[in-house]
Amino acid sequence: MLEKKVLGKTNLELTQFGIGATGIAGMYTEVHRLQAMEALELAWTKGVRYFDVAPFYGFGLGERRMGDFLRAQPRDAFVISTKVGRLLRPSNPPPAKERFYRTTMPFVLEFDYSYDGAMRSIEDSLQRLGLNRIDIALIHDIDTLTHGKTAQPIAFQQAMKGAYKALEQLRSEGVIAAIGLGVNEWEVCSDALDYGDFDCFLLAGRFTLLEQTPLHTLLPQCLERSVSLIIGGVFNTGLLANPYAENLKYDYGPASAEKIAKAREIATVCKSFGIPLGAAALQYPLRHPTVATVISGARSGKEVSEIIQWMDRDIPAALWDKLTALNLVASVGNL
Q1: 140 in a structural domain
Q2: Distance between CA 43 and CA 33 in Å, rounded?
Q3: Domain that holds residue 235
Q4: Residue 6: what pLDDT?
Q5: 109-133 as b/e, with b when 16 or more CB fall inside 10 Å?
Q6: What angle do CA 121, 14, 12 make, to 5 degrees?
Q7: Residue of 28, 50, 57, 284 with catalytic role
Q8: What is the pLDDT of residue 273?
Q9: Which pLDDT score, from 0 to 100, does residue 126 have?
Q10: Active-site residue 52, yes or no?
């Protein structure tokens, strides 16, 4: 059974592996409803009790599917997070093919980081999920990757003056238990610490076997303030799941030859210890005390089963020492 860890200064306990809804919402590959339900059912059977969604995932499809499954489970038995910052508007005709999601619901997205927008987003998410409460609310994608260098500071200020105030109020009223950000860049999390009292940050792709910059920047800040990290994108868009596959991606785009070579070098070291690369990718972030959980957008029962096996693998300290000695991965020991 998966171990649990307390999230920041809250009373929430998260399993150290959680399911993100990007996979069941059809990111990059169409996923039928039955396949999505089978993935969630197996994850539950294997002890997963933390689930992450967002309105963006499948334009509401991720929340609908996750809610359909979780409504059948005891409400106090799981923790769910969703995000604010994008509202869904009906679209007729339905939107054209989307960059990330192969199957979307008939809506278009509208960025809204205002106080009222965040309040509406939470209400809309509750209705799509069909649940009576959300545990964790995250302000979504107020980073440069999403908005560009010119618009990002504007989006950030709007979020801090608007959405943050709304989530802070909902937390103080006991409507939600924890608040934070869900982003792809560690810098925005560091900036946010100067603006408000956050419980957690969901950081995707920035603390992995291929990138450890936050180790000596954001992570010490979070540790000092008892802010937990939820690490997403541990496979860096699949590169660390199988660096020998075709059409490899990194950071949502084509992987560079340099990144592929490094991933394969790490995989070779892991293989010499009899450890799958995927197991090391999942467990590496958990070595840091501020990391509460890692999540993955598994899209099938097969993927869930493989991930759980990777989580269960005992990884010898000698493997981490070897990766550090070869200057492939930064050490998180002796903290």
Answers
A1: yes
A2: 15
A3: 4-257+278-316
A4: 98
A5: bebbbbbebbbebbebbbebbebee
A6: 70
A7: 57
A8: 98
A9: 99
A10: yes
In percent, the amount of the chain with pLDDT more than 70 equals: 99
Which pLDDT tens digit goes with each residue over 42-52?
999 999 999 99
Distance separating alpha carbons of residues 316 and 230, to the nearest angstrom: 24
Q: Report helix angle 317-325 to 257-272, nearest 10.
A: 140
For residue 30, being part of any structural domain is answered with yes
DSSP letter string, 216-237: GTHHHHHHHHT-EEEEE-TTTT
User: 3-class SS at 92?
Assistant: coil
Q: In sequence order, what are the beta bridge partners of 210?
A: none
Domain count, the chain: 1
Which residue in the list 28, 46, 50, 52 is annotated as catalytic?
Answer: 52
* Structural domain includes residue 282: yes
pLDDT in tens, 127-184: 999 999 999 999 999 999 999 999 999 999 999 999 999 999 999 999 999 999 999 9
pLDDT, position 335: 46
The answer to whether the CB of 198 falls within 8 A of the CB of 192 is: yes
The CATH number for 14's domain is: 3.20.20.100
Q: From the candidates 46, 50, 83, 259, which is the catalytic residue?
A: 83
Annotated catalytic residue 83: yes
Closest to 203 measured CA to CA, from 168, 227, 178:
227
Distances (CA, A) of 232 to 112, 150, 267, 276, 294: 23, 26, 20, 19, 6
User: d(Cα 202, Cα 326) in Å, to the nearest integer?
Assistant: 29
Q: Which helix (H) or strand (E) holds 191?
A: helix 186-192
Give pTM, 2 decimals: 0.96
Half-sphere exposure of 33 (CA within 13 A, CB side): 9
Using an 8 Å Cβ cutoff, are 56 and 72 in contact?
A: no
Gap between the Cα atoms of 50 and 202, Å rounded: 13
CB atoms near residue 333 (< 10 Å)? 11
Low-confidence residues in the chain, pLDDT < 70: 333-335
The Cβ of residue 262 has, within 10 Å, a number of other Cβ atoms equal to 17
- Please report, for residues 40, 243, 296, the alpha-carbon distance to residue 278 in angstroms, rounded to integers and kept in the order given: 20, 10, 11
In order of 77, 109, 152, the CA distances from 149 in angstroms are 41, 21, 6
